Amino acid sequence: MNKVAVLGICLLSTGLFAVEPQATSPLGLAAASYFFPSAANAQGSFGAYFRTRLVLTNPGSATIGILATLSTPTGSPGTQTITLGPAETRVYTNFLQDVFGYTGGGGFRLSESTHSSPFYAVGEVYAENAGGRFSTPLQGMSADDRVVNLASGETGYSTATGLFVDGSNRANFGCANMDGTPIAVRADIYNETSRDTPVAKVELGLLSNGWQQQSVPVSGEVIKILFWQLSAGGLNGSYCYGVNVDNLSGDGTLSPALWVPRVN
Rounded CA gap, 65 and 70, in Å? Predict the structure, then answer.
């Protein structure tokens, strides 16, 4: 992502004012591919049943094909093609069931077939109960968000933060392998009692197009998880996340694992 520095410094002592740079054209949010590491069509804890609502929009004037590939604990059930006409918007109220006929948890990748025509993809994982409808917004990730690959010599780490676990809230973490090569991902988990040394380490062995989710095994108000991919894998990479869930309502907050450069 390009970053534009905005100068807002007023030098009162000299009477000089910095001038803001001219605004650039917006880069836009539509992309030709998206990675969603967390989705569900499954019975959850405390009686909630979770489904994935997904909205796809083709902003262009030509028909496009979107390739959808699912990652599950046992691998991919195959790739499906979604065809969208010019300026068409399509809504799936249970995406994993409607497109893949799949029940369970997983992640998925969406890619325009020519890799050149952008489209919009927004969604949520939601549950309905006596108290109403509660949801966790999905966040579409790009190739730049893939987990740092130690086996390929990449530096830094990927982190999900802002998690907490107490008597009323739980937290999960997981990863989706978006490639056809098995990989391993390590998760180092920290809380406020141990800021420099992880209180738990978990290694996830992911099959080809595999997916795993686990409960955060520690409690605390300030929990963060650092992720590294330990094996080379393929070109698409792996994508990880943490998520807070309210035990009563099922309402959640997603924390995608994002890249942090190595700090010396």
Answer: 16
